[in-house]
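Why run this: before we spend reagent on co-expression, it is cheaper to look at a predicted model of the complex and decide which construct boundaries make sense. The entries below are exactly what would go into the expression plan.
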Amino acid sequence: MNLTPVQFVAIPLFAAFLIPIVAKISKEAVKYIPGIVFLYLAYVAFTLFPKALEKPIVEIIAGFKPPFGIVLYFGPTAAFLVSMVMVVGFVIWLYSFKFIIREPSEKYYMLFMMLITGATGIMLTGDVFNLFVFFEITAIAAYSLTAFLRDKDGAEAAFKYLLIGSFSSTFFLLAIALIYSNTHTLNMADLAVKMQNVDVTTKLFILILFISGLGIESELFPLNGWAPDAYSQAPTPVAAVFAGIVVKASLYALLRLVFLMFNWSEVFYLLLVLGVITMLVGEMSAMRQHQIKRMLAFSSIGQMGLIVIAFSIATVPSLQAGFFQMVNHVLIKSLLFFSAGYLVFHSGSKDISALDGLGKEKPITSFFFAFGALAILGLPPFSGFWGKMFILMAAGNSHLLLVVVLILISGIIEAVYYLRVISRLYFYKETTKEVRRTPVSGLVAMGILTVLIIILGLYPNTILAYLKPAANDLLHRTEYINAVLGQIHL
Amino acid sequence: MIFYVTSILVILIGIYAVLVKKNLIKIVIGLSIVDSGVNLLLISIGYVKHGTAPIFSRPDLTAAQMVDPVPQALVLTAIVIGLGVTAVALALVIRLYDHHKTMDINKIRKLKW
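The model came back. Tokens follow.
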């Protein structure tokens, strides 16, 4: 079979609708479908990756040439992000294998596959309305997954998420309406060319609509009220999906649009300020949380702030650092959510104070949590160290000393609340609880993440070499425009 | 011009309903109204005065006499998405009512920062 980028969208979508049919025949077989999909798509992604590095693959859908039809753009950035989604998706699937037991599992896997369809679609599409459609597919799947456990708080968190999410999509659609009325095109490459003729006030208005629309999903500061509730009430693997896939996809969409259409230095300055505020508010709110999953959710907001800072410095090394930190955050935060999920399961309570002494009763799960916490703090042998180091170096090279100081301060705050949990795990007196076993598939999933974090920490330059084309691809829009539209002189 | 003003007005009415109303169902209705407003705006962008449907139904029709078909295609998709979101929202409202036995959003808010 011919390997093309369209499979990243088509196969998960097909699998999502295949699952309920297969469930009629065998409930057991349903569980394996997402795993097969992820393995196959990871294979496709890694086969196409070298080709995308040489020359971006542009796939024209249904034979309508751009700018009229919809194109999929599989450049280095998209290749990198899609590979990341496939690997993490596979690990999350392994973890959910035994975790989703109470509810009918086919519904979970169906929504999960829909979410993957939307997220890869966001990363690949070259059409701004198509982007909106994929965005909504992701969002609707995410609302339903938040309420998956059918409990009181889950429904409330999902409703809150849905309210904020619908506003975000309204803003997005308004931005598209404005864009279309001014340029009469929806192709992103074509837009990048034609937006130059649009007057500044309209452009600014479109930019604000985009930032408020996509900023909600990518957890930028004033717009991230949904995140802690959704993260803490959704089933654990879903929280990892949010942190690892949904948020990254929408941040990529925002960055792609900004780099293509609004590449003025003031915009990057605005994003830098938003990133710093997001980071500080996220870390400080994390410190005063009593529930472990809420703490992780706020920590995730803080990390997103750090990533936005890296991207808004807008040089090749800073973009590389941003991508590196994205990988870090995906791996480490998934590990933390996974182990926290089982810690909550063992202690029977979501509170941090209930974790006293679990380090002795549940040595392996606690070890994974401690490992993740140390990695995200940025201790040297782990990959978290390099992520922070690269961002600090990039900020230093651009003479943003205040930003450097603030990143270091937020690192200290982070250390306080993570070490607090670790000390409770290991140094507090244990209370007797009924002992439940951690399933093997969960342990394997956490083990894979641990190995990946160590490998990244030991050989950061290997992945950094692959990130350079990705950074160039995002930073220099002429290549993108030329690849989609053919040679056009700006 | 009147189309733009009307659609912005409809959007504002919807936002008012979402922000001020306390009843969950009314909030969901507000969301639908916002959606309709945006759809109206999209349609009016593509409107050409005295234009006809973008179909070559008579041989003497030219492209300049037709309304722009692209916004119509967009609105069709947006309506379907809006329907999906409304359905999920109503399902969540039913579940919230099952748990809390009330529709008042002030009595439900337990999760806070």
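The CA atoms of residues 10 and 37 of chain B lie 5 Å apart. Chain B has one domain: 2-54+61-108. Bring this page to Monday's planning discussion.
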